[in-house]
Design goal:
single chain, about 350 residues, alpha/beta, Rossmann fold, about 15% strand, AB_hydrolase_fold, Hydrolase_4
């Protein structure tokens, strides 16, 4: 039973991020040799509420002008202290966003991956990284869109931006799409299709080791779902990381969104990517999103997990081991799904 307890605690930590700490990271630009290609990375900033938002621009070739029909991907990070590379001090060093950006550049597509306000390189953009909402993160996507179009203008001024929302980043991107006319499409990867409280409740119920505090956890979820705070002083120690006072405001806000309702309002092409080895988000969630959207493509990828790596084993510990290995490349099927989708948009 002990391994199961460890697994579920780790999954919930990665899903929610627990405390969103303000951290600094060193990011440098330069040339990257990958295979036969020379990729270019450079720092890029956008205006934040109290200071700059920081990110990394990855270009396929800095010496050639970017054709006007080529879109730019905006990689929107998942929950908690997840940095622009997709890493987290909670134990994730798989670098999925960095690897995705490099692989996309090898196929000719530029991207911008970002640090969230109040964290890492964007630490100065907000005084309190916990004082956030889905809508405020959406505001930052609008700012990033403007910065990208300034940095990579198209002659006709219509450079296409395609957000790639991963995990919680999918909810942020969904909520922001109505305010992003520059977005010619949307890609959701490992994104939930139900309100957050339902997903957390399912995760907790799935593990028998959680039985001693399941009733208390479900009561806390119901309280937060009503928009009310839980007395943090009465929460059992095992649940304090999940329902800490510092994250309750964000949880209340995030639980108020129904991803399928947002998906139904997206009238541009949407790609929903879901790996069958994902320990955090289910195939059923992906189907809900795809079924709700007016113009969606569903890509179910065998043996792909939450950090976009190939996992042949059904062993959850082997799956989790990939979360700490940046040397495992992005699953090729992820890249194929994304680039096939974009080529379809370009032909429309």
């Amino acid at each position: 039973m002990q391994p199961k307890r460890i697994i579920i605690a780790h999954l919930i930590a990665m899903s929610l991020g627990f405390t969103m700490t303000s951290l600094a990271s060193a990011q440098t630009g330069g040339n990257l040799e990958t295979g036969d290609s020379m990729l270019i990375e450079e720092d890029i900033t956008a205006s934040g509420p109290t200071g700059p938002l920081a990110g990394t621009l990855t270009l396929p070739n800095a010496r050639a002008a970017l054709p006007p029909e080529v879109p730019v991907f905006l990689i929107v990070p998942g929950s908690g202290p997840t940095d622009r590379d997709g890493n987290s001090p909670l134990g994730i060093t798989a670098a999925p966003y960095r690897l995705l950006a490099e692989a996309l550049a090898e196929r000719g597509y530029p991207s911008v991956r970002i640090d969230k306000r109040g964290m890492f390189g964007s630490a100065g953009a907000a005084s309190d990284p916990n004082d956030v909402t889905i809508a405020l993160y959406g505001d930052d996507l609008l700012t990033w869109t403007a910065a990208i179009r300034d940095r990579l203008p198209a002659e006709d001024g219509t450079r296409c931006i395609i957000p790639i929302g991963h995990s919680e980043g999918g909810l942020v991107a969904l909520a922001a799409m109505a305010r992003m006319p520059e977005a010619c499409g949307l890609i959701l990867i490992a994104s939930i299709g139900r309100p957050l409280d339902e997903v957390i409740r399912e995760q907790l119920r799935a593990n028998p080791a959680n039985a001693p505090f399941l009733q208390e956890a479900e009561a806390a979820l119901a309280t937060l779902r009503r928009g009310e705070r839980v007395d943090a002083g009465t929460i059992s120690p095992a649940l304090r990381p999940l329902f800490g006072e510092e994250v309750q405001g964000f949880l209340i806000d995030a639980m108020s969104y129904d991803p399928t309702e947002l998906a139904a309002q997206v009238e541009r092409p949407m790609l929903v990517v879901q790996g069958t080895r994902d320990l955090q988000v289910s195939v059923a969630d992906a189907r809900m999103l795809a079924d709700a959207a007016p113009d969606a493509t569903l890509a179910l990828l065998p043996d792909v997990n939450h950090v976009l790596k190939t996992v042949a084993s059904e062993d959850p510990l082997a799956n989790l081991a990939t979360y700490a290995d940046p040397n495992i490349p992005i699953a090729p099927s992820v890249l194929d799904a994304v680039t096939d989708f974009v080529e379809g948009i370009k032909q429309q």
